[in-house]
Amino acid sequence: MHLAGHPRAAGVVLDNGEVIEADRVICNADLIYSYNNLLPPTSYATSLSKRKASCSSISFYWALNRQFPELSAHNIFLAEDYKESFDSIFKKHLIPEEPSFYVNVPSRVDPAAAPKGCDAVVVLVPVGHLLDSSSESHKGTPNTSGATQDWDTMVSIARETILKTIESRLKISLGEHIVHESVNTPPSWKDAFNLDRGAILGLSHSFFNVLSFRPKTSHPDISGLYFVGASTHPGTGVPIVLAGAKIVSEQILKSAHGSKVPWVENSAAVDEKNDSPLDRVQWLPMLNWIHWVIFLVLAVVASAFSAVSGGWD
């Protein structure tokens, strides 16, 4: 990151040393990676690395030499013992003995995704994230119970389980028709996209990672620097990340010499000739505060209930 003045984001520095200057910088890289690798070191950046992260995934990308109409565009295969499944992912950071998984067949909606008479298949298996953000090996590191994150072994387990589950539930055999396979694992997610601990959804939505606790879309100390993505406000998931991008675009427009935000101005347009200030609804800001207070109370109740239910095991 190229910084200037007091400090202010003034552009970016490329690997070859070239500086691309800018009035403002929007960073869509992984937020934790950005704070710890693209910006000056701070205690806040270090603390971000210690926050709870979301899950990762083992993802298969298969090219099949025939079509399987039994599979629709979107397919979800849930494990019967879902509690054990979640514990393996979020507590042990491993792959469940009976994993749940999602199957997408993009060629159902886009024929160009596969040759005629063939299918393209994407399988996503949620698994735990890397225990150590510095881990570079597919052999991983041991967790607190002593089990090792051996990703090569877990990939084999996942592939075998997926094929067996699909065959038993849909009575089709995919394995013999796979002509090409690519795989992503937590280490490869980390290496390819600099995702901290290989967590594909960034920071988790645990209590101290939501609402006012979640990293802001604008840097607290560096003016002109904004963040979008899963780990910044308001949260993770494509729709929520898009909402965060909308927030950033409004912040930038408002900071640009008071520029108007077109979609806000249009939606809030009123006929000044027939509408006096006394006629306008003034309590909408209060409703917004009430909304956040209710949301906070529900989050506290949910957190307390989760702690109590955990004691029933």
TrEMBL record:
Bilayer-spanning residue ranges: 289-312
Keywords, sorted A to Z: Membrane, Transmembrane, Transmembrane helix
Cross-referenced PANTHER family: PHYTOENE DESATURASE
Protein name as annotated: Phytoene desaturase
Source organism (scientific name): Didymosphaeria variabile
